[in-house]
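Key idea: predict the complex, not the pieces.
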Amino acid sequence: QKEVEQDPGPLSVPEGAIVSLNCTYSNSAFQYFMWYRQYSRKGPELLMYTYSSGNKEDGRFTAQVDKSSKYISLFIRDSQPSDSATYLCAMSRNTGNQFYFGTGTSLTVIP
Amino acid sequence: NAGVMQNPRHLVRRRGQEARLRCSPMKGHSHVYWYRQLPEEGLKFMVYLQKENIIDESGMPKERFSAEFPKEGPSILRIQQVVRGDSAAYFCASSPLNGLAGPRADEQFFGPGTRLTVL
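Result:
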């Protein structure tokens, strides 16, 4: 069983839609949860960084962590064509530990 | 402040040759991570280094792969006697880990990657 599971998609939505991306994990020791965005042929860039359970909002992006269910989500409001990319979830046990990544979900926002 | 730099961006090698991938971390960062990304797969951790020290190499294949981060100069990921299965994108990330408490202390910033193709 993979430590981090993520539906690869692809996911295709119309411009302006709300997008929901999710990951599940098996290791209850994970405390730090991240979402990265990766454009084609580029390196991942950090979108959201959360610690433990709860919600965090940054502009059109909201990250949710439910440690009891071992489930994290990223919501994108008012999606734009420029949001078209692969979204990777990542998590770690502690500072200085390696990050465990999901396989990524490919998102296309259609104008 | 320049971001994480990796070179070369593209590298082609024939089976049996050596591949050297370089990573210059962000200014002020002394921690480097190497990841490998295979097609249709997520990023897989390989090794975590500080200056002159390997902290965690649990993701490194036991043979042919090595990494270093010298006191001066970039971090190097070295693959000897490459095989076709080594073809992948290799990403480097750097982190300040400057001793500050809190969840942002180990935020990892990624470079653009080196795409290795083994013929």
